[in-house]
Amino acid sequence: MGSEQKKRVVVVGGGIAGSLLCKTLQKHRHFDFTLIDSKEYLEITWANLRSMVEPTFAKRSVINHHEYLPGASIFTSDAIDIDEDNQVSTTEGRQIAFDYLVIATGHMGNRHVTKSERLRQFEADYEKIKSSDSILIVGGGPTGVELAGEIVADFPGKKIRLVHRGSRLLEFLGETAGKKALDWLTTRKVEVILGQSVDFDSSSDGTYLTSGGEAIAAECHFKCTSEPIGSSWLTKTILKDCLDGSGRLMVDANLRVKGFANIFAIGDVTDVPELKQGYLAHRHALVVANNLKLLIEGGDEGKMVKYTPAQPMAIVSLGRREALVQVRCVTVIGRIPGMLKSKDLFVGKTRKQLGLQA
To answer: Domain named FAD/NAD(P)-binding: which ranges (predicted)?
Structure first.
């Protein structure tokens, strides 16, 4: 197969799912792939909170795309359109033609374009935490709980308040998980305020007002509520009718966007009914890599790999040594789950998957 006959695969989004897909495609000689990403690096997102208390940790978890994709065609730009001529348009005016397209735009993240900008942000967050005696965390999902755990472990003398609009922490898991996390935090003198949100518009001079009218004094704050899904750009493209009411792309069992034979979607941007987690985004990437290989080599579509939504399982790290794990109906907290995740946060394993030193 000559290079002029190679099928063109365009991947939009260089996050957890898109990066592994590109690494896998690079091993197959039948592909000519292009990565379009709004930033020049992959960020191992579940390591972010450790990087805020230990900025040197980010040097392993923020990886320039060219580090693991040497020689690849990579455009640092936002995709803004997909048209009927099988082209993706970017903000810089490029039109990139494809035979197959994979959407992997996940959630809207930070807007730092370069790796050095992102590393400087972690340094700034660290200085903010270090110099503040009182810290407000808004959001009691996994991000807020993990950040509180990281700060408590590294800076045990800080006064930390965590405000969450829900009736319990970690609402994506069972009630037992939320109660165990609450007990763990309160034992370490974190003040948890449930059933309230924070009105940032009416907050000033280090005083934050909650929806319940409570005034909270804090020298700094961190917003740990969920980011919007990265699909708003699709509303004016040929995929506009493929978005569900939550803004996720509707996909079939092979992770193809419904109604399109040559367009796939992977990771958090899909409507697959499961928790949105990094290791599942990796699974999506490997399923689509196999399906693209089959299609491009002229295989039988009936033999495409089907993706089975995963059973609920999650590990929430609590500082450097402890964690909370839920597998189906069983919830365990302490050192043993911590041995699974908390020391390295799977950064070494993820780097190895990308062909880099752990």
So the answer is: 8-275
Q: What is the pLDDT of residue 291?
A: 98
Phi, psi for residue 94 in degrees, rounded to 5: -80, 150
Please say whether the beta carbons of 326 and 313 come within 8 A: yes
Q: At what angle do helices 142-154 and 175-187 cross, to 10 degrees?
A: 20
Residues of the chain with pLDDT under 50: 1-3
Please tell me whether residue 332 adopts helix, strand or coil conformation.
Answer: strand
**206 burial via Cβ count (<10 Å: 0-12, 13-18, 19+):** middle
Query: How far, in Å, CA of 128 to CA of 53, rounded?
Result: 10
Q: Are 268 and 276 in contact (CB under 8 A)?
A: yes
For 71, which DSSP code?
A: T
Tokens found for residue 160: 């930390």
Cα separation, 300 vs 304, in Å, equals 7
Q: Look at residues 89, 114, 117, 118 and name the one whose alpha carbon lies nearest to residue 101.
A: 89
Nearest-angstrom CA–CA distance, 17 and 49: 20
Pairing of strands 263-265, 100-103: parallel
Contact predicate 46/143, CB 8 Å: no
CB atoms within 10 A of CB 274: 16
Q: How many residues does the chain have?
A: 358
C-alpha distances (whole Å) from 188 to each of 156, 159, 162 are: 8, 10, 13
What is the rounded (10 degree) CA torsion for 65, 68, 69, 71? 100
Residue the block writes with tokens 């792309």: 249
Closest CA to 170 of 191, 152, 188, 145: 145
Element (H, E) at 221: strand 220-223
pLDDT at 2: 45
Which domains are present in the chain?
3-38+77-109+227-309 (3.50.50.60), 115-226+313-347 (3.50.50.100)
- At residue 1, the pLDDT reads 43
Q: Looking up tokens 């050192």, which residue turns up?
A: 335
| pTM of the model as a whole | 0.95
